């Protein structure tokens, strides 16, 4: 059941990302109009609320920065490796590297311009689509949730999901608020991130592992 859910979620998000990419590249008017309207409204607020904007920049540039997320993934890889779970350590590392390659490849291929403002509150490099912040946060938070022990207390699981959701949604909002991404950039990052996590976790979700396995009481596969 879990294996089926993962495969469907990954395939569905990959398909939606592909459709979204086609719409963005073709410049579908309703979507582009929504992107521009939302960007204008958020930027107008950002330039008049500097205190809020400063806090948002700290969250975006430090707390939820892609390199912060990758550092968390590196710690998880080291922990898995030291406890002998090298298969998942490799999967986590490969998934984070694959996410970076996919996002940079699409940025170079599509070459979408970022929003341009006469009074910017932040700057960013490279092309806009997809959002690297949103995709990296989705991949790392998703992988860390996947690594939760199967017998973790329900309170710990709930807290982990809450932190992950706030981080993934929060980093997307910060990129929009700072005027360095369009909404569709962030949405693509989220969708592609879920697809990468589903692919990384797919094999370990397959049924058939023996209950007597030495790691049966370890983290959920």
TrEMBL record:
Ranges that cross the membrane: 62-81, 88-106, 126-148, 155-174, 180-202
Coiled-coil spans in chain: none
Claim: Membrane is one of the keywords in the record: yes
Keywords: Membrane, Transmembrane, Transmembrane helix
This protein's record includes keyword Membrane: yes
Signal sequence annotation: none
InterPro entries: PAP2/HPO (IPR000326), PAP2/HPO_sf (IPR036938)
Ranges for domain Phosphatidic acid phosphatase type 2/haloperoxidase: 87-201
Protein name, entry field: Phosphatase PAP2 family protein
């Amino acid at each position: 059941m879990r294996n089926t859910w993962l495969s469907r979620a990954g395939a569905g998000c990959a398909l939606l990302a592909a459709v979204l990419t086609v719409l963005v590249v073709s410049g579908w008017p309703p979507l582009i109009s929504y992107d521009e309207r939302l960007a204008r409204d958020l930027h107008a607020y950002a330039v008049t609320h500097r205190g809020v904007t400063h806090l948002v920049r700290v969250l975006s540039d430090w707390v939820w920065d892609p390199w912060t997320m990758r550092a968390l993934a590196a710690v998880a890889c080291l922990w898995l490796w030291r406890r002998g779970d090298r298969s998942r350590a490799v999967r986590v590392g490969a998934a984070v590297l694959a996410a970076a390659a996919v996002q940079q490849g699409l940025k170079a291929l599509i070459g979408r311009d970022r929003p341009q403002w006469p009074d910017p509150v932040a700057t960013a490099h490279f092309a806009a689509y997809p959002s690297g912040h949103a995709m990296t946060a989705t991949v790392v938070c998703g992988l860390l949730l996947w690594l939760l022990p199967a017998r973790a207390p329900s309170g710990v699981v709930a807290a982990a999901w809450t932190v992950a959701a706030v981080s993934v949604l929060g980093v997307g909002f910060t990129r929009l608020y700072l005027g360095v991404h369009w909404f569709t950039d962030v949405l693509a990052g989220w969708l592609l991130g879920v697809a990468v996590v589903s692919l990384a976790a797919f094999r370990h979700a397959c049924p058939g592992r023996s209950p007597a396995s030495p790691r049966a009481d370890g983290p959920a596969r």
